[in-house]
Amino acid sequence: MRRRRVPLLPLAAATLLLLLSPAPPTASAPVATTDTVTPATPLAGNRTLVSAGRGKFVLGFFSPDPDDPERTYLGIWFNNIPSRTVVWVANRGSPLLGSVSDAALHILANGSLAIVDTTTNDAMAVWSTPPPPATTTTTSSSNATAQLMENGNLVLRVPGSGVVWQSFDYPTDTLLPGMKLGIDYHTGLDRHMTSWLSTGDPSQGEYTFRLDPRGSPELFLYRWSSRIYGSGPWNGFQFSGVPNLKSSSLLSFRFVSDPGHEAYYTYDLDSDTVLTRFVLNASGQIQRLMWIDMTQSWSLFWSYPLDECDGYRACGPYGVCSVERSPICGCAPGFDPRFPAEWALRDGSGGCRRRTELNCTGGDGFAALANMKLPESANATVDMSLGLDECRQACLKTCACRAYASANVSSPGGIGCFMWTGDLLDMRQFGSNGGQNLFLRLAASDLPLGSSAEAHSRTARLVEIIVPSAVGLLLLLVGLYFCVRKVKKRRKGVVPLPLRRNADNTPFGRRNQIAASSDAQDDSLHNGQQGNNKDCDVPSFDVEKIQAATGNFSIHNKIGQGGFGPVYMGKFDDGQDIAVKRLSRRSTQGLREFKNEVKLIAKLQHRNLVRLLGCCIDGYERMLVYEYMHNRSLNTFLFSKTSATVSTLNDEERQSMLCWEKRFNIINGIARGILYLHQDSVLRIIHRDLKASNILLDKDMNPKISDFGVARIFGTDQTAGYTKKVVGTYGYMSPEYAMDGVFSTKSDVFSFGVLVLEIVSGKKNRGFYHTELDLNLLRYAWRLWKDGESLEFMDQSIADTSNAAEVLKCIQIGLLCVQEQPKRRPPMSAVTTMLASEYPTLPEPCEPAFSTGRSRDDDDDEEHEDTAAKAYRSDSASSWTVTVVEGR
Ligand SMILES: *[C@@H]1O[C@H](CO)[C@@H](O)[C@H](O)[C@H]1NC(C)=O
Ligand SMILES: *[C@@H]1O[C@H](CO)[C@@H](O)[C@H](O)[C@H]1NC(C)=O
Ligand SMILES: *[C@@H]1O[C@H](CO)[C@@H](O)[C@H](O)[C@H]1NC(C)=O
Ligand SMILES: *[C@@H]1O[C@H](CO)[C@@H](O)[C@H](O)[C@H]1NC(C)=O
Ligand SMILES: *[C@@H]1O[C@H](CO)[C@@H](O)[C@H](O)[C@H]1NC(C)=O
Ligand SMILES: *[C@@H]1O[C@H](CO)[C@@H](O)[C@H](O)[C@H]1NC(C)=O
Ligand SMILES: *[C@@H]1O[C@H](CO)[C@@H](O)[C@H](O)[C@H]1NC(C)=O
């Protein structure tokens, strides 16, 4: 198990001893004597108060900036952890100008707690609490005490009046367990968090995080006075824009809204030994941090705002933001972009316009949008007495009502009613998890078909799919038009571009996969100047031509053998280099389906994908013709031992071509290519055979994925599912795919994770079924990571060129991708975001899938998995539990 902090019992005993006999502080012992300040015993200089019990917190004077010890503050920080982590500052705006030894904390005769400058004896000059209420007599005031509680609260008590002041009512940038973020309507107290100006300066910074209680209360992050992020209205269960905020056995979140009394957010920690804080940092990030004993550091648990869709009103009125599509802004069903030109330039802030105005007298209906962060609710009305059906009726009856939703989703079926009467703002849509249904009012003619709620939500999703593909189709048509024009021009005698010749005439080794051409060829190739191509976008080549180009499929031209058949290199008469994949005859497709598939695959065009030039059909023979790339595959460069025979380069040259910068670029490129396949392309392809030999490199060492979409040709459903025919390569296959034939985009994510670990380490993974340490790369990576020695995992040949932070980030992302549970693996969109951000919020990975046995238990625990699904961006309770509670 994990090592625990300093034994706590002896410390408590020591505190008690000191309490009983206030001995003069010695150099070795902590200077603390007690947890209380009284009029007779002020706190002066470098003495501190330590909370009784486990001694979790310290109150004392400090100078945050070592370069400026003449600015002194009174603060509370964690005891027993090495670097001082301040959670509260009394006089953040008015430091005592002097050193720590000049400061003292007194309880004045009138009962207020004040910082006193001992050089001038000037009370009240720096900071003081308001004096106790007038009802308090001066005699009882003189018996006031200020006590530092074990939860970090500094409490001022006056006999007879109880607590007259407490630090928890005046948060600075930190919310500790039990503190409230919100409004007390009786006292008018608005407890909010304000960032420090900078790490060394606790004065008020740019950012504020506070509750807006109007409508259904929502937390907003402000920069100066403008909003930059909203949590989404509270929906009885969670803030609708923070799906990951779920209570766990360790941390529980609460929101209390009692109109006329108070409204606040708070959280509780069910552990005496775990340290956690919720901070608004000086750069405007709202963060949860956990103290990790093992590393003796604060670990970032999550951080908001997280992505572009968290930007306040990112897509304008009636716009819906979703990071799962590109561009991220879309319009709600029944709406069109208000400023199409800006919209096309990916500025969605102008929002959307209703297609057909509402007819208030009848005929309006509702479209259901699933998994929504609810719109801002400042102007919304909330009626907890209505059910969802009554809510719908109420909305229909109110002409101004634009949408409705359940106001308490934690009740079965939902109770309570939100009704929005103004424009709908700040909406976003989450993936399958998070958010709730929003029912959007539309004119009859704009309504999707079907009327039940489920039908509605299905249609809402459909609309989302159809709209982008319609746009895609339009783009294709435009492309086709230009393409046709170009071909016509060519017929009029345009000279073909000079083609780069293959500089390297040595035979290629067997281990290489399809290769592809230099970039210079791309344009000329794509115009389909050869073959009897009828469609501009998918030329089909004569078999004679292919035979001539490949020396009748000569064994000397065979450059690889993939899961779907052998690959040959070839050269057309005009000098153009090609790679031909001869598909094995397993395909169950007819001719027309094959052609259709090829057409579709040819449309997949991305910088990080090898381009398909066309196909060739002859009887049962089917071939795919690709561009050829001269720098061969990643396999060649990465695993020098395995590819020693194939290369004209020696190891040193090869390695120098793969410095860390290049490797990081390759990792990024592969991620973008897969993201395109999974999300951004019209087809949504699952590759199913990602591996180093399928990553080809162009002359600038940019990675291009090959062999994508071939699985489609073998007639298997690509959306997700189950297959009996497991095509893939051991070592890269996810356990659920290899063992059960279940595949999804997350199987590709797994393979990507293996690739990342291979690229970083320069070692090949032999497959998860091996148990020996030296053979199993994932196990090796996990061991080192767990021991905090991940840098040892790195290929030593790049030690000089590497960037430790990037290397560690890649290793962690790799480990996240190879987690056993598919749902825990981040989607490629998250992977690319994590790779791109300099200080990403990375969850702690679970043990990767390298064991032979599989834990079935987790599969049954749906709730557990749902939570985990969002672990990549999240305060996922269960992922947290795994991190901290699991033995290390
Ligand atoms: C506190 O201050 C006194 C005198 O100002 C000094 O002697 C002592 O070492 C200080 N103690 C600590 C723990 O800094
Ligand atoms: C409390 O007493 C101090 C000194 O005794 C005085 O300076 C201060 O003004 C008093 N505060 C109030 C609010 O009366
Ligand atoms: C204040 O404390 C003194 C001594 O402990 C005690 O005699 C006195 O009654 C207390 N006064 C009040 C008002 O509690
Ligand atoms: C705030 O947090 C972000 C995200 O973790 C980090 O990049 C930034 O450096 C932090 N800012 C400060 C001032 O600590
Ligand atoms: C609204 O709908 C009703 C019934 O369908 C129709 O009679 C009326 O003309 C419509 N009004 C407007 C303004 O479209
Ligand atoms: C609420 O209503 C006010 C006044 O009509 C308007 O200025 C404001 O933009 C509205 N806020 C929202 C979030 O709709
Ligand atoms: C929401 O519903 C749950 C379950 O019925 C209930 O415990 C909770 O008090 C409700 N919250 C509000 C604000 O009505």
TrEMBL record:
GO cellular component, one term: plasma membrane
Domain EGF-like: 305-341
Apple domain ranges (all copies): 360-443
Reaction(s) catalysed (UniProt annotation): L-seryl-[protein] + ATP = O-phospho-L-seryl-[protein] + ADP + H(+); L-threonyl-[protein] + ATP = O-phospho-L-threonyl-[protein] + ADP + H(+)
Leader sequence residues: 1-28
Gene3D superfamilies linked: Bulb-type lectin domain, Phosphorylase Kinase, domain 1, Transferase(Phosphotransferase) domain 1
Topological relation to the membrane, as annotated: Single-pass type I membrane protein
GO term, biological process aspect, one: response to other organism
Transmembrane segments: 465-484
Subcellular location: Cell membrane
Entry EC number(s): 2.7.11.1
Record GO terms (molecular function): ATP binding; protein serine/threonine kinase activity
Domain of life according to the entry: Eukaryota
Enzyme kind, highest EC tier: transferase
Family that this chain belongs to: Belongs to the protein kinase superfamily. Ser/Thr protein kinase family.
PANTHER family membership: RECEPTOR-LIKE SERINE/THREONINE-PROTEIN KINASE SD1-8, RECEPTOR-LIKE SERINE_THREONINE-PROTEIN KINASE
Name of protein: Receptor-like serine/threonine-protein kinase
